[in-house]
Amino acid sequence: MKSKNCLIFNIVFFLLIFCKSFISANTRFIDISTPEINIVTEKLKLGGQNSLGQSISINNYYVSINNKPIIPAMGEFHYSRYSEEYWDESIKKMKAGGINIIATYVFWIIHEETEGTFNWEKDNNIRKFIEICKNNKVYVIVRIGPFCHGEIRNGGLPDWLLSKPLVIRSNDPQYLFYVERLYNEIGKQLAGLYFKDGGPIIGIQLENEYQHSAAPWGLTYPGQPHDWTSAERDKAVIQAGVGVSDTANPYASLGNDHMKVLKSLAIKAGIDVPLYTATGWGNAAVIEYETLPVTGAYTYPTWAPVRLSNFYLYTDLHKNPDYKPVRYVPEDYPNFAAEIGGGIMITYSRRPTVPAESLDALINRFLGSGSNGIGYYMFHGGSTPSGKKGFFSDEAYAYPKISYDFQAPISEYGQIQPSFNRIKLLHFFLSSFSDRLAPMSTVLPDDNKSLSPDNIDVLRYAVRKYGNSGFVFMLNFQDHLETKDIDNIQFQIKTANNTLTIPESSKIFLKKNENLIIPFNLDLGGINLNYSTAQPITKFINNKNTYFVFFTINNNSEFSIAKTKNGSVKAQNAAINQNSERWLINFSDNKPHQIIINKPNGNNIYILVVDKELALKAWNYEINGNNYIVFSDAVALQNNNNIELLSHNTDFSISFYPIL
């Protein structure tokens, strides 16, 4: 009998240990009861107001417009690479995809191909382009060079500059003479369109990748070593393309001084904006506290060896920016990932295909890692024009002579690509929730430091939090490697008040190549959403009722809603469990579902939950001050109070939420 009892005890003990191991392997614990970030407003000499009483301000963590924190979604679109007759339609497409800032290059060689003769006509009419942006209520950041790159011949420097007895990209007086002439011409084109005038231009980028990289001069022949477009003093440290630069530049202070001179020339030309930006990665030159250093990421670069990148691993970018070391103190600036590869250009010898799923996973990683600004290079493809003397493309780098499709979310000819619909859901999320997300700090799990890009067995996740509320970011994608489904995901989040189990009665299933953002302790408007396993898309208020739209990446979703006195919850075709503290609502199919929270004051909360397939067809629409979500196979463009539907098919569906 004693032996039998001992055997039973051992079996029970083994089962307990086994179950504990199983739970710990699938339940992720993270402690967010950490101090809040220290917001500093005094250091950065950036920001401004305009004649309409609007303001742009910036602290060390985020940008605010009219004192409301925002996380901008910026997309690169080169006016000179697209026909002017389609600019308006393309800008409307970008705005429909959630882009609220358009960045564009001024390529010097295209505008002054012949020395002393500037061309601002037709597709070169930057003023018309920016006026169209203004009409569509989209902000603009103009990248004025003089060096740009952008896969343009000589990086945008005119051929005739090579014949001059001067040192380019330096404070050589003769070089600055030509730069000042260029800036003066740009200033004339942009006059009256700056933010201070009530216009859309909120930012200017000075130079590009200065003292980090260069382009080859286009005047070359087969087999000739590249002659780089950089100052002679910097040629020992500059490199081809975006990357890490560990080499200290003995002329770094001269580079910073050159950036100051460029800024002074821009202001002298009337180019006066709240935000001046500069390349921040790879030890590039910046103006301390006077330029916002922007970062980026290219996961399929053709200028570097093929390898697994670290860009799908969460980190704290506010402390550890990508492509470090950098020439600034990261904690003193917001992390603005302004140059995220929206695709990549092919070359003669390198032709990678960029999966659509790679882009929204990358944005998820940036947001989860603390980025408070995202930007795409490119968001809209185009065609590089030719000049009087040849092609303007960077043929020395073996890029195509004309095509600049870039595998971007909007293609060379304006087609909407699959990546567009995936990332627009994140842009809609930012439009509705960035005022909450921007002040939130990043908290990483204890095992995060041990993760490597080739580890696809461990869930990659991070939390952004402020106080007891926040968002959990998770992804299941890695460039150049096939991932696998991850099942039975559950979180235990320790806050200052309690420990929250998410989800309480089910588990999360994250398919391979997918990513997800789930909220916890989210204020729905007087009602607390303890958590959901569905991702929020948008929020709006119509006639005092508050509407939320969420999507789920599988057939199961769970919502935990805090109980309120005299309130009630309704949900069709759902399992509702309640106790004294919460309503627990579970959906188990992929049909659209609605949760109605009845508040005592009669101002109700409506939560629509759809599957991802339907969410990818969602578009924002506003009419007479009321907001709606349009679900359609077609591309839905806002045109004043009207909606325009673009489709290659005559048979497409359309529906509205809430019903018109």
Structural description of this entry:
The longest helix has 25 residues, at 2-26. Helix 5 (173-190) crosses helix 6 and helix 7 (357-368) runs parallel beside helix 8 (418-437). 18% of the residues lie in helices and 28% in strands. An 8-stranded parallel beta barrel has the order 6-7-8-9-10-11-12-13. Strands 16-17-18-22-23-26-29-28 form an 8-stranded antiparallel β-sheet, with helices on one face. The protein has 9 helices and 36 strands. The protein folds into 2 domains: 48-433, TIM Barrel (Alpha-Beta Barrel); 440-616, 3-layer Sandwich (beta-galactosidase, domain 2), CATH 2.102.20.10. Strand 17 and strand 18 form a beta hairpin. By secondary structure, it is an alpha/beta fold.
Structural class: alpha/beta
Q: Could you name the CATH homologous superfamily of the largest domain?
A: Glycosidases
Number of strand elements: 36
Low-confidence stretches: 1-25
Number of helices: 9
Biggest beta sheet summary: 8 strands, parallel, barrel
Distance between the terminal alpha carbons, to the nearest Å?
A: 75 Å
Q: Any guess at the CATH architecture of the largest domain? A: Alpha-Beta Barrel
Overall mean confidence score, pLDDT: 94
Work out the radius of gyration. 26 Å
Shape: globular
Q: Share of helix among residues?
A: 10-25%
Widest sheet, order of strands:
6-7-8-9-10-11-12-13
CATH topology of the largest domain: TIM Barrel
Q: Return the domain count.
A: 2
Specify the CATH class of the largest domain.
Alpha Beta
Beta-strand percentage range? 25-35%
